[in-house]
Amino acid sequence: MTGRARARARAVARGQETAAPGASKAREAAPATALVTEAELVGRGRQKGAPGAFSAEAVLQISAGFQKVKLGERGGRRQDFNDAGINTRHAMEHVKESKSGTSGSAIQLTANYFRIMSRPRWVLYQYHVDFNPPMESRRLRSALLFHHEETLGAARSFDGAMLFLPQRLHNKETVLHSETRNGEKVQITVTLTNELPPTSPMCIQFYNILFKRILRILNMQQIGRNYYNPKDSLSIPQHRLTIWPGYTTTILEYESAIMMCIDVSHKVLRSETVLDFMVNLKQQCGEQRFPEICTKELVGLIVLTKYNNKTYRIDDFAWDKTPCNTFTRGDEEVSFKNYFKKQYNQDIADDNQVLLVSHIKKMGPSGGHPGPALLVPELCYLTGLTDKMRKDFKIMKDLSEHTRLNPDQRQGRLNSFVTNIQRDIDAQAELDKWGLGFDKELVKLTGRVLPAERIFQGPRSFDHAGAEWAKEMRGIPLINSPPLNNWLVFYTRRNGNEAQALLQHLGKVSGALGIRIQKAVMVEYQDHQESLLRALQQNVGPKTQMVVVVLPSNRKDKYDSIKKYLCVDCPTPSQCVLSRTLGRPQALMTVATKIALQMACKMGGELWSLEIPLKQLMIVGIDCYHDTIAGKSLTAACLHASLCTETEWETVSCTAWSTMKLLRSWTLSSPWGKTTYPS
């Protein structure tokens, strides 16, 4: 399974009752009949007779059997597909044919995948299209080309330069003639450049484009990368929230077939408009501070305009423009207020509201350069949840009733989705034109439930089948923990009691865990970022083993400044904790235990271990950051864990301009990589 799928892969045990698929307004899909026989489907994907519905006998899964077909040269300008995540396991001698284990017990699973079905010997034909004279507008190029439906057929996909057809034209080069509305004669030359097998990277890209077309036929709305159905929206009036159900999908090649990975997604919309938010904010902060605070609160947020179901990012404010201002549309000046009334039948009540600015990055269909879009706050709805909402237990509980689905509900939703595609006349007709379809059932496979691992901690060991064993760890010494003799605790005057309570409880739990902790040095700082940074610079020294900071709020800028100083400028292990986490006396013992374990681990201690039969094993974890702002450099952070005799680990970070240089830099900077495991 490739890691590039944007949809999340899930599997649920079979034999469980699934939710009934939702009813569709379209007619029931009739049983597929074989309009063509397999003997008639000859010659590199061409068929005799009109294309029609395909039966189970006439259908072949797009499978690994096509993987041996050699891909020819591609025509046109396209991206390099070497990193497309496909064909990763072909011709690898060390890979076993069977990857099924024997440990544990077998279990039947259902995965969130649907196989893509096609006719036998299905081929996608790729053509390059030239226009003489050249046409700049992609929309005009498409209109001129699609006048020739009798020649090209009903099934076609054109991106402005490349044309894809399910059947081959009679000639390798076909010349067509069209005429614009102005009477200009245009010659169109369609040249065959490639015959693509089902597993080619271009076909994988085409499947995803075609499926997006199917989603639009179903009247689903794209928000970000996912599609949602506003007709099935769920309302939570007590919190002024609306949920749009949707799906996240991706189609890729896997070991056995081309499959669509699909998962349920939800988009949370707020009934509050941007104008409502701005009015409330102005009442709270006053006229003078309003522009500054409004910019800080709203810039970067995503809003939805329901009149066209599009999302925009708020990038700025046009403080000098209101709905009464005008813009040029064609040959006339039109006010924003009149434009929205005529175009979308939207009435704007507040004529004095300032307009929002969103920088459009995607080039339009006319081929024009993108520019800033001006939006009316009254017509923009906020999306997502605020930090205050996320902290509200009641809101999150009510949301989870609709968004957290159990395996049966999730499987029912996925089956219902594909059933609706097969029942929709227009959607199924579009798939039939291309000779493609979806399997009616989710992929079934056999998995294995592995036995529980034995966990070793100090003198004890225990078996635990779950993923949480905090209770079993209480009162048991760790495998190894360095003594904590020189450490600092930073706190504000308002959080002094919480900091003292934390120290007391750390002293209580550390003895049972085998951690020797000396008294910490308490440092008080004022509640602003500059004071905290100055306190760190004045008190943290070379002999400091640990820095604990009690934060009054979860402001990201303050947290980032702490980590930047203690990771880059003055490398020192650190632990941040929110004051509200320490404000619950009944849970303070549990909190102190978890903090003590984290501190011990950050100082190089060994908490617990597993019985791993492999000897001289090193595990490397790596995370990469792509800095697109400062020159597109790559920064990698690596963690090496050596499990030869005991649990040891170290971290290395490095920066480079390419992946190969990054790996080389990591190898040279890692002592284990140079000596124990040479490259």
From TrEMBL:
Location in the cell: Cytoplasm
UniProt keyword annotations, A-Z: Cytoplasm, Developmental protein, RNA-binding, RNA-mediated gene silencing, Translation regulation
Residue span, PAZ domain: 273-384
Entries under InterPro entries matching the protein: GAGE, PAZ_dom, PAZ_dom_sf, Piwi, RNaseH-like_sf
Domain Piwi: 546-643
One GO location term (cellular component): cytoplasm
Region (Disordered): 1-31
Any one biological process term the GO annotation gives: regulation of translation
Compositional bias segments (type: Basic residues): 1-11
GO MF, one example: RNA binding
Protein name, as recorded: Putative piwi-like protein 1
Gene source species: Scophthalmus maximus
Taxonomic lineage from the root: Eukaryota, Metazoa, Chordata, Craniata, Vertebrata
